[in-house]
Fold this sequence. Notes:
The protein is α+β, with helices and mostly antiparallel strands. It has 9 helices and 14 strands. The protein has helices at 2-50, 135-152, 164-173, 206-214, 223-241, 250-260, 267-276, 307-320, 327-338; strands spanning 77-85, 95-105, 110-115, 121-123, 129-131, 158-163, 177-181, 185-188, 194-197, 200-204, 261-263, 285-289, 292-297, 300-305. The strands form 5 sheets. The protein has a 6-stranded mixed beta sheet with strand order 11-6-1-2-3-12, sandwiched between helices. Strands 4-5 form a two-stranded antiparallel sheet. The protein has a two-stranded antiparallel ribbon with strand order 7-10.
Amino acid sequence: MENSDRDIRSKRHYRRKRRIRLLVFTLATVFFAVLTYFSYAAYHTYKAVDKSYAEVEGRNEKSNLREEPVYVSNDPFSVLLLGIENYTDENDHGRSDTIMVATFNPKNQTMKLISIPRDTLVDIPDYREDKINHSYSIGGKEKVIETVENFLDIPIDYYVTVNFKSFINIVDVLGGVTVDVPFDFNDINQKWERFYFYEGKQKLNGDEALVYARMRKQDPRGDFGRNERQRQIVTGVIDKVTSPSTLLKIDEIAEEIGDNIETNMKVNEALAFIKKYPDFRSSSIEQLEITGHDNYIDGVYYFSPDEEAMEEITLILQEHLSYQRTSQETDEYNSNKLE
Length: 339
């Protein structure tokens, strides 16, 4: 009888050990599968985003206005944001329909965001005075960077170009963006589809967001109203990108970025920024606006910025970037302005 009890207990013990081993093996298999999947996804995402990387020709690791390279995880830096409208004419590379500059200060984790009206009359280096949005068709992103550096008197450390088709797709992948519509209006897209916007909070999909950002003729503030709406879209996208729910869509976003966005910010730099400042939100963004007056030259419309207001904006941005020209650079800059 005792032997029979021992046999029963032994069999039970064996079966229990077998179940434990099976459970451990199953958990290990699941863990390995999950780890493999996320490792593959992370590698796939990294490779997709890495396709967007493109250096700025004519300079190495830094702006020509910098003495030393900047690092996004520690140093104040600037980013030029360009919305590009491409044309079918092989002799016309398109124009930068949207031009924004963002500066980020890691010490206080704040961003300043400024729009440059596309009709702004500026000196395009090695060319002539013209509308700033023509600088892209003249010399691509390099000429825009050079022109903006000369106009704002700050270094442009990074750039991001996005075409309008990609803009639509990214907004849709993010699940749309919410904006505060300033007044009722409606407008059409390039397909002659009409979209309606009503004063107050409204969630927009990609097509709606593009129409909302580009409308100008119905806005009583003209380009200023348009620029403000574009900044709304940018801040809305920032909030969506920094949202935890976006992690579930990172693969789709990475594919869209890799195929349609161009930047000189490396993937490891962007990841370092996200890791160090995970709580950054649009509430930390201060929006700046360029003031000036309408100007007509030979019947062509230009926007001429107010010089005193521009000096103030320049000082604000320089301080935010902890940037100060050397005495030699200042003398050269002032000399060029007098010529």
